[in-house]
Amino acid sequence: MSRKKAAKGKSSASSPCASPRRKAGGKRGKGGSGSEPQAGGLAHPRRPPLSSSGEFYDLAFKVMLVGDSGVGKTCLLVRFKDGAFLAGSFISTVGIDFRNKVLNLDAMKVKLQIWDTAGQERFRSITHAYYRDAHALLLLYDVTNKKSFDNIQVWLTEIHEFAQQDVVLMLLGNKADVTHERVVKREEGEKLAKEFGVPFMETSAKSGLNVELAFTAIAKELRHRAMKEADEPKFQLQEYVDREMRGMACCKS
Ligand SMILES: Nc1nc2c(ncn2[C@@H]2O[C@H](COP(=O)(O)OP(=O)(O)OP(=O)(O)O)[C@@H](O)[C@H]2O)c(=O)[nH]1
Ligand SMILES: [Mg+2]
Questions:
Q1: Cβ–Cβ under 8 Å, residues 112 and 215
Q2: Which residues lie below 8 Å from residue 234, measured CB to CB, with a gap of 6+?
C-alpha cells in the first residue's frame, strides 16, 4: 500500500486552550485549507503535501469535537496532540480550527485531522457547514456543568440533521478530574449514552484520563470500516473501550 505524507496542522497554539489559529469562513473545500490532502479512507494524493516535515500515513479521517462552550474541547485536543494541559484563563475558540495527528495502529498509520469547533451559539452556523465532511464526532459535556449535559440532546438533534448518517459518534464526559464540583454522575452519562446507542467514557484533559483511548477507539473504528472484509465481525467500539479501561484499572492496582 502506498503511503502518504501528513501535512502538519497549521495551528501553533501558545496555550492549549487558547487562541483561534484559523477562523472560519476561509477557504474550505475537502481537506480544509486546500493544502490538506483528502481524508476518508485510503490515501490517494492529488498533490504533494506542502509540509516537508510531515509523517507518512496509510489512511486519513476527519474527526470533529463538538459540545457547549467551556466543556474542554480545545484542551482535549491539545492534550491529545501535545500531551499538555496549561491551566489558565479560558479563551473561547473562535470559529473552527484543526490539528493533525498520525496514530500507529498495529502496522498501519492512521492520520486524524481533528477539527476543534467553537461551542458558542454565535458560531453554530459555521460548525453546521463542517459536519458533512466529518467521519467521526466526539461530543463532549462537562461533568461539572449540568447545562452542558442537558444540552447533549440538542447536540444530538443537530448531529442528526447535519452530519452523515453513518458518522462515528462518541459521548465524552470531560473534567472527570474534578471531584468536588462534579454535578453529573458517571452513571448518568452512561445512561444517556445507552439511550441514544452511542459509546461513552469520561475523560480529563487535565489529567489525561482516557484522552488517548478516546481518539484511538475512534481511529480503530474508522480503520475497521475502511478496511473491512465482508466476513469480518464488526468492531465493537464500546467493548474495546471497556476492555482497555479494565486493563488500565488492573495495572494501577
Ligand atoms: N479541571 C479541568 N478543567 C478543564 C478540563 N478541560 C478543560 N478545562 C478547563 O475548562 C475551560 C474551557 O476549556 P476549553 O478547552 O477552552 O473549552 P472549549 O470547549 O474549547 O470551549 P469553546 O472553545 O468556547 O467551545 C478552561 O479553563 C480549561 O482550563 C479538564 O479536563 N479538567
Ligand atoms: Mg475551544
A1: yes
A2: 224
pTM: 0.83
- DSSP 3-state assignment of 236? coil
User: Could you give the ipTM of this predicted complex?
Assistant: 0.99
What are 109-168's pLDDT values in tens digits? 999 999 999 999 999 999 999 999 999 999 999 999 999 999 999 999 999 999 999 999
Ligand nearest to the CA of 126: 1
| Residue spans of alpha helices (H) in the chain | 73-82, 124-131, 146-150, 152-162, 186-196, 211-227, 237-252
**CB-based contacts of 131: which residues, under 8 Å, 6+ apart?**
64, 137, 158, 159, 162, 163, 164, 167
**DSSP three-state, residue 62:** strand
Q: What pLDDT does residue 42 have?
A: 53
Cα 3 to chain center, whole Å?
23
Closest alpha carbon to 176 in 110, 79, 50:
79
Least Cα distance to 171 among 203, 144, 145 occurs for 203
Question: Ligand 2: distance of its center to the CA of 194 in Å?
Answer: 27
Rounded Cα distance between 100 and 81, Å, is: 8
The best mutation among 90, 99, 212 to test binding of ligand 1, ranked by most ligand atoms within 8 Å of the C-beta, falls on: 90
62: which residues sit within 8 A by CB, 6+ positions away? 39, 40, 112, 113, 114, 115, 133, 134, 135, 136
Residues within 5 A (CB) of ion ligand 2: 73-74, 93
